[in-house]
């Protein structure tokens, strides 16, 4: 485990930011690999996108998730069979179908997040008290990072799919 040099404590100096980034990335990567999955990462990401942005066209979901439209159609069909999403008519264009997260899909995402958080709690419980306290002191910064990441993903989602429901503003 790398130590933060005393000169860098209290600041995120240019030298220490890459080490922080690598530590966070390694932690997240390990968490993704450790938590059992019954859905692909693309399926989980699609559910999360629907949760964040609301109902979307299959073509928009494909663009946001970086897959082909036929692949997204297959993925959505599987999620629909599992009861995690449903197809709905577009409110103004009945020829268009939108994919929406179901209550079961929302429950599934909440349960996955709880399992992921519990995995971290188990690891935190193994830390010495002073390291657990250091993490507690970083909660505000970690939440801010999460919010910044969410804002960045929201901008990317809007630009790649033309906003909610894939319509241009």
Give an account of the 3D structure.
The protein has a domain at 38-111: Winged helix-like DNA-binding domain superfamily/Winged helix DNA-binding domain (Arc Repressor Mutant, subunit A, Orthogonal Bundle). The chain starts with 16 loop residues before the first helix and ends in an 8-residue tail after the last helix. The protein has helices at residues 17-34, 41-53, 58-65, 69-81, 103-124, 129-137, 139-161, and strands at 85-89, 97-101. A hairpin with a 7-residue loop joins strand 1 and strand 2 (97-101). The radius of gyration is 19 Å and the shape is elongated. By secondary structure, the chain is mostly helical. Helix 3 (58-65) packs across helix 4 and helix 3 (58-65) crosses helix 7 (139-161). It is 63% helix and 6% strand. A two-stranded antiparallel ribbon has the order 1-2.
Class based on secondary structure composition and strand pairing? mainly alpha
What pattern of helices and strands is seen along the backbone?
Answer: HHHHEEHHH
Provide the CATH top-level class of one domain. Mainly Alpha
**What's the overall average pLDDT, rounded?**
85
Specify the number of helices.
7
Characteristic terms for this protein:
169 residues; mainly alpha; disordered C terminus; Arc Repressor Mutant, subunit A
List the helices and strands and how they pair.
Layout: H1 17-34, H2 41-53, H3 58-65, H4 69-81, E1 85-89, E2 97-101, H5 103-124, H6 129-137, H7 139-161
Antiparallel strand pairs: 1-2
Helix pairs in contact: 3-4, 3-7
């Amino acid at each position: 485990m790398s130590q933060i040099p005393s000169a860098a404590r209290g600041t995120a100096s240019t030298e220490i930011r890459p080490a922080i980034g690598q530590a966070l990335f390694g932690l997240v990567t390990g968490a993704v690999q450790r938590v059992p999955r019954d859905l692909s990462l693309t399926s989980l990401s699609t559910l999360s996108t629907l949760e964040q942005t609301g109902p979307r066209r299959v073509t928009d979901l494909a663009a946001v998730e970086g897959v082909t439209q036929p692949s997204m159609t297959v993925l959505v069909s599987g999620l629909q069979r599992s009861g995690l999403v449903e197809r709905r008519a577009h409110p103004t264009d009945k020829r268009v179908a939108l994919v929406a997260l179901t209550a079961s899909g929302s429950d599934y995402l909440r349960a996955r997040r709880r399992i992921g958080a519990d995995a971290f709690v188990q690891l935190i419980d193994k830390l010495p008290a002073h390291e657990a306290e250091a993490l507690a002191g970083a909660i505000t910064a970690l939440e801010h990072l999460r919010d910044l990441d969410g804002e960045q993903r929201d901008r990317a989602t809007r630009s790649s799919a033309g906003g909610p429901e894939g319509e241009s503003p």
